[in-house]
Amino acid sequence: MKRSLLAIASLLMFSGALLAQDFPRVEVFGGYQILRVSQDDYGKTLNGWRVSMAGNLNRYFGIEGVVSGTYGDFYDIDGEPDDPDIDVNARIRNYSYLFGPRFTARSKVVTGFAHFLLGGSRTSVSAAASDPNATFSSNAFAWAVGGGLDLNLAKHFAVRPAQFDYGQIRTHDFGPGNVNSLTYSAGAVLKF
Questions:
Q1: What's this model's pTM, rounded to 2 decimal places?
Q2: pLDDT tens digits, residue range 121-134?
Q3: How far is CA 142 from CA 45, 70, 138, 147, in A?
C-alpha cells in the first residue's frame, strides 16, 4: 500500500513537469502576402505584407491576431480594353485586421497550424478617368480560414514557407455580393 501511495505521489509531482513541455508562449510572424480577390466574373491579384501574433495558451491552442495590407493597380477596368471612349485606371488598397483561435501541432522540426479568424477589412479605391478623379472607401466584416507550416531552424526562429487562407469580405459598396479571397503568405517567425 505504501508503495502504491509513493508511486501515485511521485507521478503527481512529476506529471506537471512532463505536461509543461517547452513551447513558445508568443509567436510573431512577418512576411510577404499575395491576395487574390474575386467577385462575380472579375478577379485581381494584390501584393503586400502580413504581420501576426499568436499567444499560445498551451501546446495545442492559442489566440491569433493578424494585420495585413495589400495593394494593386487596375488598368482599363471598364471591362472593354478596346473601347477608346472609356479609360478608367484605379489603385486599390486593402487593410485587414482579423482575430481568432489557432490550433497547432508541434514537433522539433516542423510546426503546423490551422485557424479561423474574424474581423474587418478597409478597402480604398482611387479611380482616375477622363473626368474627375474619385476615391471610394469601405469598411466591412471579413473572415478567413486556413493554415500554414513553419520550419523550425532554431529554438526562437522559424521560416514559414507556406500559409494559405480562404476568406470573404462582406461588402456591397463595390458591387453586388461578397468579395472572395485566397491568400498566400511566406516569411519569418520569432518565438518567445
A1: 0.81
A2: 999 988 876 556 77
A3: 18, 15, 12, 17
